[in-house]
Amino acid sequence: MHNTQPWRWTADGDGLVRLYVDRGRQLVLEDPAGRNAVISCGAVLDHLVVAAQALGWDGEVVRFPKGPGNDLLAEVRLEQSQPSPTAVDDLEAIRTRQTDRRRYTSWPVPDEVLHALVAEARRRGAHARALDDEVVRFHLERLAERARVLRAADPIAQAELERWVDHSAEDGVPGDVLPSDTDPAVSPPSRFPAGSVHETRTVSSPGDGVIVLGGAFDDRAGWLRTGEALSRIWLRATRDGMSVVPLSLPVEVDAVRHELRKELLRYEFAPHLLVRVGWQAIGREPLPATPRRAVSEVLRTT
Ligand SMILES: Cc1cc2nc3c(=O)[nH]c(=O)nc-3n(C[C@H](O)[C@H](O)[C@H](O)COP(=O)(O)O)c2cc1C
Question: Where are the stretches annotated Disordered (predicted)?
Answer without folding.
Answer: 170-203
